[in-house]
Amino acid sequence: MENEMIREYIAVSMEEYKTIRAEIKQSNINQFQALSFGAAAVGILLSAGFYSWDKTALITIPIFSIFIPALCFLITYIWLGEFARMIRGGNFILSIERKIEAIVPVPEEINDIASELDSSLIVKKPLSWEHFLRKPMGPEIAESGHMPWIYNIRLWIFPLVAAGSLLVAVGYLFPQLIGNHMVLLCVIIITLSVVSWFCMIIVLGSAFKNIKKTAGRSNLPLDH
Q1: Are 23 and 89 in contact (CB under 8 A)?
Q2: What is the enclosing helix (H) or strand (E) of 218?
Q3: Which helix (H) or strand (E) holds 140?
Q4: Is residue 224 one of the residues assigned to a domain?
Q5: CA dihedral 39, 45, 47, 53 (to 10 degrees)
Q6: Of 121, 102, 103, 101, residue with least CA distance to 113
Q7: Residue 223 in domain
Q8: What is the torsion angle, in degrees rounded to the nearest 10, for the CA atoms of residue 100, residue 104, residue 107 and residue 113?
Q9: What is the pTM of this model?
Q10: How far is it, in rounded angstroms, from Cα 193 to Cα 214?
Q11: Residue pair 42/69 in contact by the 8 Å Cβ criterion
């Protein structure tokens, strides 16, 4: 009777595991689609802005000072939402892996095989993918688990595009600054953009706070 209950418990947990894993997969797809759409939309706006550069300021200025920064804000907001969804699912899957690990003993043969393969790999546990992703990278595995630089690129690419767009808008309005004060202008615009982006992230509220806390436990970047 007890063994039957354990089997049912494991079966239910595995169904839940597969469901959450599918949600994480969909979240990754949504992240990629958001970034792809954002890149395409920004490309179209950039083309329109530079096409109208010598024709009319009524189109050029709004594109570089309003539309592109606003679009970058929206895309980053959507990406952070899907990122939070992915981390939430990963946290839950990690709890399932730990429960199954407590129930299912690891045969000695598996321990021997795992030791022969690589001591830095987590392959002894019945379910180990989320453990593997969150394990700090060692010298034996240079590209294992989460790769923080990928998340940092995804987080900062659109804020940097927004900063560059604002810089172009200021240069268009005040061309005399290009020669004499370009370096100072770049520093001011980028600094203001970074500060405003951090304010935007804070405004996102509890979702981002949860991501940040998880990053500390999972070796993900987000100062995930």
Answers
A1: yes
A2: helix 206-218
A3: none
A4: no
A5: -150
A6: 121
A7: no
A8: -10
A9: 0.68
A10: 26
A11: no
CA 95, 79, 33, 154 dihedral sign is: negative
The pLDDT-based confidence of 55 (bands split at 50, 70, 90) is confident
DSSP-assigned letter for residue 106: P
Is residue 25 in a domain?
A: yes
Q: How does 119-131 read in b/e, with b if 16+ C-beta sit within 10 Å?
A: eebbebbebbbbb
Q: Residues 10-47: pLDDT tens digits? A: 888 888 889 999 999 999 999 999 999 999 999 999 89
Burial (CB count <10 Å: 0-12, 13-18, 19+), residue 89:
buried
Residue range(s) defining the domain that contains residue 11 = 2-218
Q: How far apart are CA 87 and CA 94, in angstroms?
A: 10
13 contacts 99 by C-beta, under 8 angstroms: yes
Q: Is residue 155 part of a domain?
A: yes
Taking Cα atoms as reference points, which of 219, 221, 207 lies closest to residue 80?
A: 207
**Contact, 126 vs 104, CB < 8 A?**
yes
Q: What does the alpha-carbon distance between residue 216 and residue 94 come to, in Å, rounded to a whole number?
A: 15
Return the CA Rg of the chain. Answer: 24
Question: For the chain, how many structural domains are there in total?
Answer: 1
> What's the pLDDT score for residue 136?
53
- Higher per-residue pLDDT: 213 or 143: 213
